[in-house]
Design a protein that fits this description.
With 285 residues, the protein is mainly alpha-helical. The chain has one domain. The protein has 12 helices and no strands. It starts with a helix and ends with a helix. The relative contact order is 0.16.
Length: 285
C-alpha cells in the first residue's frame, strides 16, 4: 500500500513537472523578449546607418562569442578548447575593427563617416550583438525550463508574440522620434523608384520572418549556440558582396578580421562535428 501511495505521489509530481505555465507567465516572458528584440533592432539600425556594410557585418560576428558566454551561465554550455578558440578569435576579430582608419571613406559613392558616428555605430552594433546573444540563450532556457512542452505550436506562439511586441516598440519609436516624416523623402530619393523601395521593405520583412522561424526552430531542436553558428554562415559572403555592390574597400584590417571570424566559426563547427561523432559512438555501444 505504501508503495502504491508512493507511486501515486510520484505520478502527481511528474504531472506537476509536465504542467505548462500559465498564459500570463508565458505572455510576460514573450513580451519581455519582444521588448529586448525591439531595442536590439534599433541598435542594429543605428550601427548599420553609421558603419560600412563590411565593418557592420564583421562586428555582428561577435554574436557567437556573446552567445557562447551567456550559454555557459544560462544553459550550462560546456567550454571545450575549440569553443574557447572560437570565442577568442571572434572577439579579436571585432576589436581589430576599432583601429580601422579607412572606414570614413571606404565607399566612393557613400558620404564620409565622421569618427564620432563611427564610434557610435561600433558601440551600438556591439551592444546589439550582446543583446542578441542574451535573447538566444534565454529562449533556449524558456523552452527547456519553462515551456517544457516543446511543440511547433509553442514555437509559433513565441515567434508571433515576440515579433508583435518588437514591431509595436519599433513603430512607437519611429513616430516618437519624428523620423516618420522623412519616409516620403527617403522613398523619393531611392534611385530605383518607389515601387522597388516598397518591394525591398516587403521582402525584407518576409525573409526576416522566415529567419525567425528557422532560428527559433534550431534552438528548439538543438541549441541556441548551434542556431547562432548557422546564422554566421553568411559572414564571409556579405563583406565580399559589399565590395561589388556597395563599392566598399576590403583593406588589410578588414581582411584579417574576416579571416579570424571565419576561423572562429569553423572552430565551433568542428567542435559540433566532434560532439556528434562521440554521441554516435556512445549510441552504438
Amino acid at each position: 500500500m505504501k508503495e502504491g501511495q508512493k507511486g501515486v505521489a510520484i505520478d502527481d509530481e511528474d504531472d506537476d513537472d509536465r504542467k505548462p505555465p500559465s498564459p500570463y507567465t508565458l505572455g510576460a516572458i514573450y513580451a519581455s523578449l519582444g521588448l529586448i528584440i525591439g531595442l536590439n533592432c534599433f541598435l542594429y539600425s543605428v550601427g548599420l546607418q553609421n558603419l560600412p556594410v563590411s565593418t557592420y557585418t564583421l562586428l555582428c560576428a561577435s554574436q557567437l562569442a556573446f552567445n557562447s558566454f551567456f550559454s555557459y551561465f544560462i544553459n550550462g554550455q560546456k567550454f571545450t578548447p575549440f569553443v574557447v578558440n572560437s570565442l577568442v578569435l571572434l572577439t579579436i576579430s571585432s576589436v581589430l575593427l576599432v583601429f580601422n582608419k579607412d572606414d570614413t571613406s571606404s565607399s566612393s559613392t557613400a558620404p564620409a563617416i565622421s569618427r564620432v558616428k563611427y564610434i557610435i555605430g561600433f558601440l551600438c552594433t556591439l551592444t546589439s550583438s550582446a543583446l542578441y546573444g542574451v535573447v538566444l540563450s534565454v529562449t533556449q532556457f524558456v523552452f527547456t525550463r519553462v515551456v517544457k512542452r516543446q511543440t511547433f505550436k509553442q514555437v509559433m506562439e513565441m515567434i508571433i508574440t515576440e515579433n508583435v511586441v518588437a514591431s509595436v516598440v519599433t513603430v512607437v519609436g519611429l513616430f516618437a522620434s519624428g523620423e516618420w516624416r522623412s519616409i516620403d523623402r527617403e522613398m523619393d530619393a531611392y534611385r530605383l523608384g518607389t515601387v522597388p523601395y516598397l518591394m525591398v521593405l516587403i521582402w525584407i520583412a518576409v525573409f526576416w520572418q522566415m529567419f525567425s522561424i528557422g532560428a527559433v526552430g534550431l534552438i528548439f531542436e538543438v541549441s541556441s549556440l548551434f542556431s547562432n553558428s548557422i546564422s554566421a554562415v553568411g559572414l564571409p559572403i556579405v563583406p565580399i558582396m559589399a565590395v561589388f555592390f556597395f563599392n566598399d574597400k576590403m583593406n588589410g584590417i578588414k581582411g584579417v578580421s574576416m579571416a579570424l571570424a571565419v576561423w572562429g566559426f569553423v572552430s565551433y563547427v568542428y567542435q559540433y562535428y566532434v560532439d556528434e561523432q562521440i554521441s554516435k559512438t556512445c549510441e552504438t555501444k
